[in-house]
Amino acid sequence: MVKQHVESAINGKIRCDACPVMCYIADGRSGACDRYANVAGDLIRVDPLTVIEATLSDGGKVVPFMTDSQGEWDGDIVHSARHFVTAVGAGTTYPDYKPAPFIVSQKQDGIDMVTVVTEGIFSYCGAKVKIDTDRFLGPESAAVRVEGEPIGHVMTGEYGSQMLSLGGVHHLTGGSKKEGRVTCDALLQLCNREAVEMTIDGGSSLIVKAGTAPIINGVEEQRMRVGCGSATIGMFAKQWLGHVDEVVVVDDHITGVLSEHQAGKLLNVQPTGIKIKGRRSTPGRYFQVAEPGTGWGGTNISDPLSIIGDFDQKTAYPGLRMLMVSTTGEQFGYYVLDENLVPILQSTLPAPLQQSVEIIAENCEPALASVLFMGGAGGSLRAGVTTNPVRLTRSVKDALTHVSCGGAPAYVWPGGGITVMADVMDMPSNSFGYVPTPALVAPIEFTMRRTDYQALGGHMEAIVPIEEALSLAERKLAPVADRAWPTDGRNFRWGA
């Protein structure tokens, strides 16, 4: 546990200055955030300082037992070659004038590197959530609610996935006290990979947990689409050739029709006289065949024939074979036209068509819910790194400083400021905390050459060797993300 500086004490209670709440904490008790506690008069960071260890073998595997020439075994079965001190459990810089809790130095391939480690208090933060599903979750811009409180909204659909934008400063601070509390709690659970139940105005209820399949209206999603209806036609047209006369791939966005599609034309599939309800886009591609929903291909239909009009009697013929299938292969039907050109559902699916449906399903990736933390690194964070905060921003933009979150690579958005986004699945477990202002507390690290740190006005007097931080570390993990090590030269302009 890391000890923090204590400014004042009253009646045996110590005052914590790690966030704007400024709790007075009695001995043996923790503050409102559950992150700091009073232990015999010392202010202690409760969560363990977390260090990531890279092993000598790839993928964090245990290396072979040491040879005799290596001396006595020190009891370390991991045989760590490199360490990276994350900000998880490190503490904050609040009230901003202090250097970051840990500014550590180490060598990487002979280069003196510095990593500035701090937990940031993020009032300007949220989560971007990707839900892999064909189901209709709700209209774009519809409110997403937890416990009846709005915590975000529906964004655009992105080819088999629905995007949600959750949190943000307006939900945290701009609404009622309950809205801010519920938003903060939901973000904390999502970012710590816990399940959150939510509803969408005019749409569905869902349970979201990072790294697992979403549960929509009580049903666990199995797979995401192989493609839109048109793309599915293009991918599998050859497999249907000769086994069926017409194929309709039902899709809320772009329904595909084999005989009209360019793929069908090039394969010499003959016209069938089919008529699709909806707005024709280009040949073989139809929009708005039905309303959005949780049925076939993300539509509201349970009977696929409801999107088909009467066949053209001049072109269609009795015995014409038609396959209708959804974009995930979960729904399908095989029909044959009778003497009146009415499609009749067949009880069995011919083997070649059954195989094609199975291949569609096989090519659909498993449905997942993905949670990306997003936050803006503002005053307190940058001031804890340097006495001239704008220089840190420039250094990040110039690829002289690498940004990570809990050791995981962070995407830095273009434009002004330091706005970062990181996949919570790449971060150590329980990386996030909160303060009841309300705001999330998230780990962030800035890594650079020592010379570059000095040039941007860094707190050089606060630099300590990494061994000093390692002596305080209580949790040591193998790398979560299988990507470049944070101090690796490939992360920097000078090492590219």
Structure description:
The protein has 496 residues and is of the alpha+beta class. The chain has 9 helices and 34 strands. The strands form 6 sheets. An 11-stranded antiparallel sheet has the order 18-17-16-15-12-13-14-11-26-30-29. Strands 9, 10, 27, 28, 31, 32 and 33 form a 7-stranded mixed sheet that branches. It is elongated and about 90 Å long. The protein starts with a strand and ends in a 19-residue tail after the last strand.
How far apart are the termini? 38 Å
Shape, please? elongated
Rounded Rg = 29 Å
Mean pLDDT: 89
Largest sheet descriptor: 11 strands, antiparallel
Strand order within the widest beta sheet: 18-17-16-15-12-13-14-11-26-30-29
Q: Characterize the quaternary organization of these chains.
A: single chain
pLDDT < 50 runs, ≥5 residues: 56-80
Give the percentage of residues in beta strands.
25-35%
Alpha-beta classification: alpha+beta
Total DSSP E strands: 34
Helix content: 10-25%
